[in-house]
Design brief:
By secondary structure, the protein is mainly β. The chain has a domain at 429-510 and 522-685: Alpha/Beta hydrolase fold, catalytic domain (Rossmann fold), CATH 3.40.50. It is built from ten helices and 42 strands. It has a nine-stranded mixed beta sheet, with helices on both faces. A hairpin with a 5-residue loop joins strand 2 and strand 3. The chain is globular, with a radius of gyration of 26 Å. It starts with a strand and ends in a 6-residue tail after the last strand.
Length: 686
């Protein structure tokens, strides 16, 4: 079948055509990573007059990312530093600001700052646990939060006491649950997450729930706080979680509960089995919107928005016909509609839905737009927008009337000043089985259509995720160094409908490989890509697919396989997401290993001839180092040119430390520049 590719030039942002050799300062390079800033969590005050947001920069001395809170008027004027901290939340009356930060011992705590001229700050919590998901009560008197309460293992044995002054080895870590580790956290001590309330003026935190169960919906045992929502009278809190003695062995299972703050009396509001999360109570307290999906056997289920009465009755799927994953719900003040954010074919925009399920767009276009908060009257909201020329800034969204969002910040304008960025091309293409897929090409900023450029093909992880059509600093750096960059959304990606995502259910990798290869062919059809200098890489799910591709084709001159899964059998017992791993297969491997082996790229390593750089974090608990070690050893035995890079102080991925992010880019480009389809480049080839 002939390939059909459709190419559109979009998001062009240039400052003239120049050559990097002559004007190096006009183009981005690896070092510019240190200057990039990121904004997030924009919170508008209830009266709509001020906006607080989190701003992240790089601490170059200590090799880490630092966050601080900034404040500005709602028109973007008087933008200024407020204080160190994160997770800002205005009090309902707008007089105070809740935030999280370290106490004098470096322990995370909840603080409250008065937003008057004095700006007094009070430490609200003084707890030994780590508070998460802090949420104001509507009367402003209390703050709810969630924290993990340690539990002790009851198995003790008797051995002689150590002699005075002896330094005996600490006793063993005793485990009796399958979930005992979490990437970017480490090995977790036994415990259960529970709900607390504390006076907003500071005081003793009171525990509302207890027992061997979790407050907070946990995807495969991963703790990330909880969805909390107070009723307007400040008497009850709705939350997600799972009260079941067998919760450790349950996957994608949670409920919505309501608890009386005064008595602790609790009821379950959702009655159907499923993964129900993030309740949001309406302003009048009569209804609740929540997210999730009923129990299913597919590897992926699209989350929908549901609405039910405050007592749990009359549940309705609001987005049943929308066929896009929705999140980030904000009720309108009239109690008749909600705003939310949703992916749609490589972009993200804001939508509204009435309670009958009629969905209409609030924003549109080739951008990534997210609505984060709104004023009390719902006249205006604030959030973030990024596109091909803007890395991401705070925007104001009109809600009560039609109109375009207004940009309020420009945090990376100084970094991009005078820089020439690569042009973006959007491509739609057809795989050999007739399925259409979508992606983008980033061209070098000094692009010459008569030149053949080397191409880096990057594959996203997940696999149930979506590459976004927006500015990507890493890809712009690659382009500025003379590479064309291709990135696509193969089947399995989200944002293109549930059927598209479920195309790899219990078959990963499979048809996604067809889409990826079709993307390569579409890029070659442009006429400016050198077919002898094609390179492929990706991390996590991208590591799965890049290792799979070089086991099924020899078209790539080199590969950078990062944090991969290459052996599903050994992955299941060593990852922090064991049930997610199991969900890709009809049967566990001890019953039938056939499919587990069929979809493991290590089984095809005998086909690999592509020089391969394997890169993984030493502390990775998601796709552990052993996966990379297995693959590297097999490549070496096969005589394939290969190197293994073990990144220090890294969990999953290789870029949580700024210096490692730069190393990842630099080593990848150096590796790619060493190889063509004809072999290793020598000095005489230069």
């Amino acid at each position: 079948m002939s390939l059909r590719a459709f190419v559109f030039v979009i998001g062009v942002f240039t400052c003239g055509i120049a050559h990097a050799d002559d004007h190096a300062s006009e183009f981005l390079d690896v070092g510019d990573w240190l200057e990039a800033e990121r904004v997030s969590d924009a919170r508008i005050s209830p009266d709509g007059r001020q906006i607080v947001y989190t701003r992240r920069h790089i601490d170059k001395i200590n090799d880490r990312f630092e966050s601080s809170l900034w404040i500005m008027d709602s028109d973007g004027e008087r933008e200024r530093f407020l204080m160190k901290g994160s997770n800002p939340r205005w009090s309902p009356d707008g007089t105070r600001l809740l935030f999280t930060g370290p106490d004098k011992n470096g322990k995370p705590q909840i603080f409250v700052r008065w937003m008057d001229d004095e700006g007094a700050v009070s430490q609200v919590t003084n707890v030994t646990v780590t508070p998460a998901s802090p949420t104001w009560s509507p009367d402003g008197k209390r703050i709810a939060f969630v924290a993990i309460i340690p539990s002790k293992n009851k198995w003790n044995v008797s051995i002689p006491s150590p002699p005075e002054g002896a330094k005996w080895t600490k006793g063993p870590r005793i485990l009796d649950r399958i979930h005992y580790r979490q990437d970017r956290v480490g090995f977790r001590d036994p415990g259960y997450s529970h709900l607390f309330v504390v006076p907003a003026s500071s005081g003793t935190a009171r525990q509302l729930t207890s027992g061997e169960w979790h407050v907070g919906a946990q995807f495969d045992g991963l703790f990330s706080g909880a969805g909390l929502s107070w009723t307007p009278d400040s008497k009850r809190i709705l939350f997600d979680g799972l009260d079941d003695p067998n919760d450790d062995l349950m996957y994608r299972r949670s409920h919505i509960y309501a608890i009386d703050v005064a008595t602790g009396e609790r009821e379950m509001l959702t009655d159907s089995i499923g993964y129900w999360t993030d309740p949001v109570v309406s302003p009048d307290g009569k209804r609740v919107v929540y997210s999730g999906y009923p129990e299913a056997k597919e590897t992926y289920e699209m989350p929908h928005l549901f609405v039910m009465d405050i007592d749990g009755g009359n549940s309705t799927n609001l987005t049943e016909d929308f066929d896009r994953p929705a999140s980030g719900v904000i009720w309108d003040d009239n109690n008749r509609q909600v705003y939310f954010t949703a992916q749609d074919r490589g972009y993200v925009n804001v939508f509204r839905s009435d309670l009958s399920g009629k969905v209409t767009p609030v924003t549109s276009g080739q951008q990534v737009a997210t609505l984060v908060s709104a004023d009390k009257a719902r006249n205006v909201g604030v959030g973030l927008i990024s596109n091909f020329s803007e890395p991401g800034d705070i925007y104001r969204f009109p809600l009560a009337r039609s109109g375009e969002p207004t940009r309020l910040t420009a945090v990376n304008a100084d970094m991009l000043q005078g820089k020439t960025l690569g042009e973006q091309e959007e491509i739609w293409f057809e795989a050999e089985d007739g399925s259409m897929a979508h992606g983008w090409i980033v061209r070098p900023p000094n692009f010459d259509p008569d030149v053949k450029y080397p191409m880096i093909f990057e594959i996203h992880g997940g696999p149930f995720a979506m590459y976004q059509g927006r500015f990507n600093l890493t890809y712009q750096i690659y382009a500025a160094n003379g590479f064309v960059v291709l990135y696509t959304n193969p089947r399995g990606s989200t944002g293109y409908g549930e059927a598209f995502s479920q195309a790899i259910s219990r078959a990963y990798p499979s048809v996604d490989h067809l889409d990826l290869m079709a993307g390569v062919d579409a890029a070659l059809e442009t006429g400016y890509v050198d077919e002898k200098r094609l390179y492929v890489g990706g991390c996590s799910g991208g590591g799965v697919l890049s290792s799979w591709m070089i086991g099924h084709t020899d078209r790539f001159a080199a590969a950078a396989v990062r944090c991969p899964v290459v052996n599903w059998l050994s992955m299941m017992g060593t990852t922090d997401i064991p049930f997610f791993t199991l969900s890709f297969f009809q049967k566990p491997f001890w019953q039938d290993p056939t499919d587990w082996l069929k979809h493991s790229s290590i089984m095809y390593v005998g086909n690999v001839t592509t020089p391969t750089l394997v890169m993984t974090g030493e502390k990775d608990l998601r796709t552990p180092m052993a996966q990379s070690e297995e693959y590297y050893a097999a490549l070496k035995v096969q005589g394939v040119p290969a190197q293994l890079m073990r990144f220090n102080e890294e969990y999953h991925g290789t870029s949580s430390k700024p210096s490692n992010a730069m190393r990842t880019m630099a080593y990848m480009m150096a590796w790619y520049n060493r190889w063509t389809e004809d072999g290793e480049v020598t000095d005489s080839d230069d």
